Amino acid sequence: MTRRRGLMWIAQHALAIALALMFLGPVVLVALTALMTDEQALTSRLWPEQWNWANFGDVFARSELLTWTVNTFVYASLATLFMLVSSVPAAYALARFRFRGRKLAFLVVISAMMLPPQVVAVPIYLVWARLDLTDSLWPLILPMLFGDAFSIFLLRQFLITIPRDYTDAARVDGCSDVRILFTVILPMARPAIAAVALFSFFYCWNDYYGPLLYAGVDQEGWTLSLGLATFKAFHSVQWNLTMAATLLVTAPVIIVFLFAQRVFIEGVTLTGVKG
Amino acid sequence: MSGAANRRRGPRERAGQSRLAALMLSPTLVVLALVVLYPLLSAVRESFYTSGETLDADGFVVEGERFAGLANYSGVLGERFVNALANTTLFTVATVSIEVVLGVLMALVMHRAFRGRGFLRASILIPWAVPTAVSGLMWRWIFQADGVANTIIGQQILWTTEGVQAKIAVIVADTWKTAPFVGLLVLAGLQIIAGEVYEAARVDGASAWQTFWRITLPLVRPALLVAVLFRMMDALRVFDLPYVLIGPRKHSVETLSALIWDEATRVHYGPASAYGTMLFLYIALIAFVFVKLLGADLLADVRTRRRVAS
After folding, report:
1. To the nearest whole angstrom, how far is the Cα of B105 from the nearest Cα of chain A?
2. Most exposed of A143, B59, B121, B256 (fewest Cβ within 10 Å)?
3. How far is A12 from chain B (nearest CA, A)?
């Protein structure tokens, strides 16, 4: 028994290390390249012969990295906040209430998820142009006030797994549906809400075609993904600078995630489902 | 208990719920309908028209849109469309299956308590924090002729040229980027499994293997199905990664989205809309088949789920 447990321990740690290597490895390579001199970055030697920390300063000097970071943060945070405010009630209604047209409502949500963005980009762009909101990130933020199909679907899937007994008990005690949402459902769904918020934040952070379509030509209004792709185009042979920029962009997100992870785990231990 | 509470709920309360549901859902539904239906209809309409200057039957130049019937759809039978369809399908099947295996492994490891778990979680999720456009550049650098990939395997493979190796490069890069997404969703699913279930299994003397197949996997199934469905829909629309990694108009990695984009940038709006409509139908068909075959409980409502459970 103890021997088997020992083997399990080894297998588990080996797997953990293998996974960490697989997913962290390329990032380590990026970090090493970011510290190389211009000449070495073009060779296949992996370890920097000369640690060139000035690359990071160079990136700031040659681009609007700080502005892009602020823009991306504002865009991702606002979009995520708006998404939560609108999608949680919508998902709750879809998961818990029985009303006419519920199937149809759900169908609309699902088809919104399946639509290839390239197909609908032009008609939607024309609408925003008529509202005079292009050349800004608002066309990407404002729709989130009305919910996001992906998040609604995901939240609904989690909400239907909460046993009905909890809400029934609250209802017997005289709770209204709105109060049940806030006092019973929301605390229990915290891990799911944290996950959806993370997905939304990362989606905005990653998004390239949205900003490409709407952010306009002025670099002041760009996001990081847009700026970085252009940065690469301007400094095409300087892999070290491109990689330094990549590293600078990734770092803040990792910090955000480290905080979010705490909420994630804390949320789970607080849910009533477990005990 | 719950049955009694259900029975006690009167028609007045039911009506109150309907009103509340309408209040909570209507802004979302109106906007989704506008964002989905209007552009979709205009794309479908566009697919039956030619735009710009065309020649009429007598050879005169005609300005503006003209009804073209199914002419825009003729390309659907062409080699380029069929190839793009095959590429899209290959990428979807390959990446989603690898990601499910890796994602479940990740979630199982991340779920366990051990020293350095926080570090592992953070390092596994890093790929996700790298913007796709940037990770495409990173993998392009790794897959250079004298790049890291060739150094490690000791070969001289021209990864980013046309051929099978380009497909492999895209699959590797896409898996690296999106397996963490599956891992995180499965982890969230694992975390709502009650500890007692495992304890009961241990008391009954179940092996780790049995526990995984008989308890963990069935209980995490809803979360896993959602992850697979999302990933499939996303993979079927993949555009930026092959584009940045290998390049535009490369036969061996051109996906349907890339084909649509290429036609649209050459102002062939008719064929672009026709291909877009086909892609939408293809995604809808696959989602439908997936839900029918695997996820009967995926879209079901609470009542039927409870009946299945009890």
Report:
1. 8
2. B59
3. 7
A182-229, pLDDT tens digit by residue? Answer: 888 888 887 778 878 887 888 888 888 788 888 887 888 888 888 887
State which residue of chain A sits closest to B116, comparing Cα positions. Answer: A16
User: In which residue are the tokens 């491109």 written?
Assistant: A242
In chain A the domains, ranked by start, together with CATH numbers, are 2-56 (no CATH), 64-272 (1.10.3720.10)
Closest CA to B290 of B246, B195, B224: B224
- List pLDDT tens digits, range A97-116: 777 777 788 888 877 877 77
- Bridge partners of B55? B61
Q: What residue type is B221 in one-letter code?
A: R
Q: pLDDT-derived band of residue A270, with 50, 70 and 90 as boundaries?
A: very low
Chain B, 105 to 144: residues with Cβ < 8 Å from chain A are 105-106, 109, 112, 114, 116, 118-134, 137-139, 141-142
Q: Looking at domain B73-309, does it have CATH number 1.10.3720.10?
A: yes
Between CA B265 and CA A244 the distance in angstroms is: 32
Residues 6+ apart with CB under 8 A from B6: A168
CB contact under 8 A, B14 and A208: no
ipTM above 0.85, yes or no: no
